[in-house]
């Protein structure tokens, strides 16, 4: 006796899954970038800086699995002096500088809107993906 199981449409399903896998990283990176950009813009406005140099270093960063906003020296440009973003944000020595939590304030101000936008964008992406399968 021999049992045979035949699944119809498996080849098409595998082809569709490969297509989704190829598009997924780019699409999620774009979604994460769209989430981080408004927070970065708000953080730039909240920075206390005489020259504006620190505000120019506030940048959104996005990958396949993350969205974040960073400030201070980033990348290869480390010749421009010491990194004072942490001191500006959290404060310095006790009594010397109170700090200005511009990144945390920007995140708090945008939290509800960011979560709603993220849910809508990922739902739309998943709906598009499942329709194409």
Number of strand segments: 2
Given helix and strand content, the structural type is mainly alpha
* Major sheet attributes: 2 strands, antiparallel
User: What kind of assembly state do the chains in view correspond to?
Assistant: single chain
- Any low-confidence stretches, pLDDT <50, length ≥5? 1-5
Give the N-terminus to C-terminus distance in angstroms.
36 Å
Name the strands of the widest sheet in spatial order: 1-2
Average pLDDT reading:
79
Q: Report the C-alpha radius of gyration, rounded.
A: 22 Å
What is the overall shape? elongated
Fraction in beta strands: 5-15%
> What percent of the residues sit in helical stretches (DSSP H or I)?
55-70%
The helix/strand order is HHEEHH
**Total helical elements:** 4
Note the topology:
Blueprint: H1 10-46, H2 53-56, E1 59-62, E2 67-70, H3 85-90, H4 102-132
Antiparallel strand pairs: 1-2
Helix pairs in contact: 1-4
Overview of the molecule:
The chain has 133 residues and is mainly α. Helix content is 59%, strand content 6%. It has four helices and two strands; from the N terminus they run ααββαα. It has a two-stranded antiparallel ribbon. The protein is elongated, with a radius of gyration of 22 Å.
Characteristics of this structure?
two-stranded antiparallel ribbon, mainly alpha, 59% helix, 4 helices, single chain, 6% strand, 133 residues
